[in-house]
Amino acid sequence: MKGQESSMEKWWFNSMLPNEKLEYRCGLSKSMYSPDPSEIPVEVKTSYRNNVNSSYLNNGSKSNHPHYDLVVTITVTVIFIVTFVVKVRTRSERGSSSKRTSTKGSDLKSSNVPYVAQKYRHLWIQCENCYGLNYKKKIKSKINICEQCGYHLKMSSSDRIELSIDPGTWNPMDEDMVSLDPIAFHSGEEPYKERIDFYQRRTGLTDAVQTGTGQLNSIPVAIGVMDFQFMGGSMGSVVGEKITRLIEYATNEFLPLILVCSSGGARMQEGSLSLMQMAKISSALYDYQSNKKLFYVSILTSPTTGGVTASFGMLGDIIIAEPNSYIAFAGKRVIEQTLKKTVPEGSQAAEYLFHKGLFDPIVPRNTLKGVLSELFQLHAFFPLNPKKIK
């Protein structure tokens, strides 16, 4: 009986989308995963059930209907989805030109969406490109790629490690390293130390990068992955020290190196100490690449800006970018306010910069691990092979 109800639910939901017009206007498709009935708000269920009850009182007993509860659950699910999408799309069509950002990846910004979206945004992630809705329980299996348009949504550092490194081979390094507010930064909003504590609790990380070793298709590698969810991936003294130690370890152990960049640049709360990390990391990379002749791959994800772009982000032997990544030194708004000139739309996107020769390939997320594996195997046949270096 349970299987029959499940199949009926899928058929009924798909029957609600019989034509392309409804799909286009509401941003729904037959492939969209419907939410668990238990997640539908109780007050919505109750309100709708009361309406249905009154209808049955006028037309006959509800007990005569064999699928009364199922019909109520499915109908409320569809109403909830359509209401949610229509309200969000109405807002976007009213001329809101401000870019949507969030500390939780591409989650809906709570101050700019309707009440329904605010209250139940934990169920959905909205695509920054097509504004389509992706169900959170399903998006991870899709490696954070939008079902509707294929846009690459932001990923946490832990998800990227899980994507790139073979299961059971990840060995983290320097997990206990934390910032101690070295310049006693004063802010009118909140102390720097409290801000660090907040993001540590929110992300479960100690700072904006995870470093360690593991195996990529059985190839031992050293890898560092920045996390934009931790203070915008900003590079402070801890981030710089952890990356430098990773590079030195890879140099001593003759390991290929991967650095995944996702950062807003140097961390202003640490002043010149954060800027010094650019030189420190670049110096360690010089020894790794020029003196030891080892192989470093830099992966640029969205966004990669500021001091990260100006240092190790652009020093890779192979520089890879994800599709549609925002890559720049200074942001569009900063350039326009400083130089009083308009920055052409799309001039800081990966596809445009690729044609200008800024980096090597643009590699989709679902093929990245295979590409990295081939690159490492290719270099094993040349003098860059670490086992042959004296």
Structure, described:
- The chain is an alpha/beta fold and 390 residues long.
- The protein is 42% helix and 12% strand.
- The chain is built from 14 helices and 8 strands.
- The strands form 2 sheets. Strands 3-4-5-6-7-8 form a 6-stranded mixed sheet, with helices on both faces. A two-stranded antiparallel sheet has the order 1-2.
- Strand 6 (257-263), helix 10 and strand 7 (296-304) form a beta-alpha-beta unit.
- Helix 3 (42-59) packs across helix 4 (68-93).
- The longest helix has 26 residues, at 68-93.
- The radius of gyration is 25 Å and the shape is globular.
Oligomer: single chain
Biggest beta sheet attributes: 6 strands, mixed
**Ends apart, CA distance between termini:** 70 Å
**Lateral strand order in the biggest sheet:** 3-4-5-6-7-8
Detail the poorly predicted runs: 4-35, 54-63, 93-114, 381-390
Q: Tally the beta strands.
A: 8
Q: Helices and strands: which structural class?
A: alpha/beta
Computed over alpha carbons, the radius of gyration is 25 Å
Strand fraction band? 5-15%
Mean pLDDT: 77
Order of helices and strands: HHHHHEEHHEHEEHEHEHEHHH
Inertia-based shape: globular
| Percentage of residues assigned to helices | 40-55%
Number of helices: 14
